[in-house]
Design goal:
Number of strands: 15
Order of helices and strands: HHHEEHHHHHHEHEHEEEEEEEHHEEEEH
Shape: globular
Largest sheet: 7 strands, parallel
Helix content: 25-40%
Number of helices: 14
Low-confidence stretches: 1-24
Strand content: 5-15%
Strand order of the largest sheet: 2-3-1-4-5-8-9
Length: 531
């Protein structure tokens, strides 16, 4: 293992170590090059909150959230911070969320009047820009459906669409084969729900049954005892792709009745921030829980931040979001008091990206930090473009956006989640994004993974900083998150391909992992210098 040289240390270590009177408990975490690799399996209780754990004490690449609460902020009183969650909707009745849901103090519930005159009637807990829309197409599908306009963008979208469609057909064929194998095994065992032991005990001279037995043994080995629910989710994903996301005939927006190419046509939707079905709000509910589910209440997991209010902005369907809804959603959150906005969404094409750029700049002018997920294609964003972003050819359009890649649970060569996008120009930091345990609709909790989970981990830390050090600007908070992170020079596998390795220090702008403990130390020092 290489020992970190001074030039590799984070800016935080330089600030703190060069200052006077820094106590031992206020020393930031810096060098981890000689950290022993964790070889034992993570205990279930630790796994449920691994993003809160400490990389030195627990040898798990968490964000040292528990350490920050115990040593830095346990006796401090922060101010309430509103976090806008622009997502698929939020189950605001979940017992671990209902006490942290934002309520519009200027609106009288149920009177059918726009009391605060913000253009949205009875927006008590946020706004639903999708109305009753659930399943939608991908942006590439919409571009292809409009027809060939001779542009390079159309050619690119057409090629991407055809590739995606063929992959979906192949996935359907694979699922249908597995599903047929499952039904055959059910028939042989005379039971719908069977275990690994049942399957191992099954004997048959029928070669087809024997083949299907091997198939299902492989499925269970990969998916575990919950393979039935995994198969159901896989089926829903594939059929949603073919029936909606990639269906050139599907127009999910029609029922909303607005003009998607007119940003001024902005008062569509309703105040049902959960959406027409609670199940459809699973993504936004999980994201909200990562940020703010109540700490230490004995229910499910713990949120990162302890003094926040979640403003639900429903703008992301099952399919690609519309630029119009994202732009309006950001502006809504800004105008109604959000100081942090989480955006766990993204796509490869953006016909009206200038609307989103303008919304980002508007948020910057109002001192609002936007946290974005880097995406789950395992792609190098220095080469491939993904929207939304805050970077154009001339550089960043504003200094209030931080884009987040996903870490896996183990420090070492497999530190980066195999699905996570990366890039030295467009990805700013990395944070936990695999097996993240949080709230789910209908009073449930679930493990989920994706850069969609990494972003709210960072949004939670940002909310902590803005709560305890409210004098700091959105730009300052962004740079604290980046500069105070933990660096490492180890080579990491990218896109799950062992041959594709790169130094962790080279796959993001900061080359660091977000660390709440370090960030709060830096925030306190910076806040003091402002006085």
């Amino acid at each position: 293992m290489k020992i970190l040289k001074l030039s590799s240390l984070s800016l935080l270590s330089v600030l703190v170590l060069s200052g006077c009177g820094a106590s031992k408990s206020m020393t930031p975490i810096t060098s981890i090059e000689n950290l022993p690799l964790k070889t034992s399996k993570i205990k279930e209780n630790d796994l449920k909150r691994w993003s809160h754990l400490d990389i030195i004490k627990d040898t798990i690449p968490g964000m040292s959230v528990d350490k920050a609460y115990a040593e830095l902020i346990k006796n401090k009183k922060g101010t309430k911070v509103i976090v806008g969650v622009v997502d698929s909707g939020v189950d605001i009745e979940h017992p671990d969320l209902k006490s942290v849901i934002w309520t519009n103090p200027k609106e009288i519930p149920g009177n059918g009047i726009d009391d605060d005159k913000n253009g949205y009637i009875d927006d008590i807990h946020g706004w639903n820009f999708l109305g009753d829309v659930t399943n939608e197409t991908l942006e590439m599908t919409r571009i292809v459906r409009k027809g060939d306009d001779g542009s390079e963008n159309f050619k690119k979208a057409k090629a991407a669409y055809e590739k995606e469609y063929q992959e979906a057909l192949a996935s359907k064929q694979q699922f249908d084969f597995i599903n047929n194998a499952d039904k055959t095994i059910q028939k042989e065992l005379k039971k719908e729900n069977y275990t690994l032991e049942d399957l191992k005990a099954l004997e048959s001279k029928d070669p087809t049954v024997s083949q299907y037995k091997r198939v299902m043994l492989s499925v269970i080995a990969q998916a575990g005892p919950e393979f039935k629910s995994e198969l159901k989710e896989y089926q829903e994903h594939i059929y949603n792709q073919l029936n909606y996301n990639l269906n050139l005939e599907h127009d999910g927006r029609k029922i909303l009745g607005d003009n998607i190419d007119d940003l001024n046509d902005s008062k569509h939707g309703n105040n049902n921030v959960t959406g027409p079905k609670k199940e459809g709000a699973s993504h936004g509910t999980h994201v909200s829980g990562i940020i703010a589910q109540v700490r230490n209440n004995g229910l499910g997991g713990d949120g990162i931040a302890n003094n926040v209010a979640i403003m639900a902005v429903r703008a992301v369907p099952d399919g690609d979001e519309y630029d119009k809804d994202i732009a309006l959603g950001i502006r809504y959150a800004v105008d109604n008091g959000a100081k942090v906005i989480n955006g766990s969404f993204g796509k490869g094409f953006s016909p009206h990206k200038e609307w989103v750029y303008d919304a980002i700049k508007y948020a910057a002018s109002k001192d609002v930090l936007i946290v974005l997920a880097a995406g789950n294609e395992g792609a190098d964003l220095d080469v491939e473009e993904r929207f939304p972003n805050d970077r154009i050819a001339s550089g960043e359009i504003a200094d209030n956006v931080i884009k987040v890649g996903a870490l896996d649970t183990t420090y070492g060569t497999n530190l980066i989640a195999d699905f996570s996008n990366y890039g030295s120009k467009d990805v700013d930091v990395f944070a936990p994004g695999v097996k993240i345990y949080a709230t789910y609709p209908n009073n449930e909790y679930k493990y989920e993974q994706g850069t969609s989970m990494a972003a709210p981990n960072v949004a939670g830390v940002a909310a902590l900083i803005r709560s305890y050090y409210p004098s700091l600007t959105a730009s300052q908070v962004k740079h604290i998150l980046m500069d105070s992170g933990i660096p490492t020079n180890i080579d990491v596998v990218l896109n799950g391909e062992k041959a594709n390795k790169r130094s962790f220090s080279k796959i993001s702008t900061s080359g660091k992992m977000v660390n709440a403990y370090n960030a709060l130390i830096m925030a306190e020092k910076m806040a003091k210098t402002k006085k």
